[in-house]
Amino acid sequence: MRTHTLETPDVDLVYDVAGPLPTADGQPPLVMIGQPIDASGFRALAGFFPDGTVVTSDPRSGGRSVRKTDEGSRPRRIKSAASTR
């Protein structure tokens, strides 16, 4: 298993890859994501796919991923469809 970090201005997202990329058979990898589960929560499940490539990630501000904040920045608020009515 290899660990990678995708660095962006807002967050460093950490993800693990089990198997080859690109995949050996040309099929897309299986990507397992969850909230609030981090990549460690999928290790046992990923073991059921030994012949494929499995990608698991840690969510923003969870596990090994780090949400970055600048001084003076405010958290972003997302309005749901229900709150705009």
TrEMBL record:
Ranges where the record places region Disordered: 52-85
- What InterPro entries does UniProt report for this protein, alphabetically? AB_hydrolase_fold
What's the protein here called? Uncharacterized protein
